[in-house]
Amino acid sequence: MKKRVAVIGAGPSGLAQLRAFQSAAQKGAEIPEVVCFEKQSNWGGLWNYTWRTGLDENGEPVHCSMYRYLWTNGPKEGLEFADYSFEEHFGKQIASYPPRAVMFDYIEGRVKKAGVRDWIRFSTPVRLVRYNSDKGNFTVTAHDMKTDRMYDEDFDNVIVASGHFSVPNVPEYPGFDKFNGRVLHAHDFR
């Protein structure tokens, strides 16, 4: 029976994992069946900008703290895929600190070139991962938001690439419950 690997998240880290499997297969290696679960309707993780704050159209917390005109705070050379340069993607040199839209275009271009979109189940957040010690595998419980169906699938390995920016840490202070205005976290700044 062919091994199965679940990848949770189709942001830069999850996409790099998909690309690594695709590259290995391209070189003739036998790879496991790869299934990537992504809670958003598109890939890119935090670089996939949305104007929404609070909850999304499915009642899920909005995934990112990204705002439309953000620029990277680190040089592109530290954000580049090892096998795909910004220069290769854009066909020319670009500034070292690109804006968000340029980063998203670059990330999307890399994975489009790899052809891994069919491995991703979009609008499908993972609700639970359980290790089955008796079988030595994992059961992933996912929620297909398009059909509003919860289901379980077994995998030999799970790669968690969901990032750590999706849920803000909102501290509680005395008086919050009495405040009539809106308490806004930087996560919701657009």
Structure description:
This protein has 190 residues and is α/β, with parallel strands linked by helices. The protein has a single domain, classed as FAD/NAD(P)-binding domain. 18% of the residues lie in helices and 20% in strands. It contains three helices and seven strands. The protein has a four-stranded parallel beta sheet with strand order 3-2-1-7, covered by helices on one side. The protein is flat and about 60 Å long. The relative contact order is 0.22.
The first-level CATH class is given as Alpha Beta
Which value, in Å, is the CA radius of gyration?
Answer: 19 Å
**Secondary-structure element order, N to C:** EHEHHEEEEE
Instruction: Tell me the CATH superfamily.
Output: FAD/NAD(P)-binding domain
Strand composition percent: 15-25%
List the strand order in the largest sheet: 3-2-1-7
The computed structural class is: alpha/beta
Distance between the termini: 48 Å
Binned, the helix content reads 10-25%
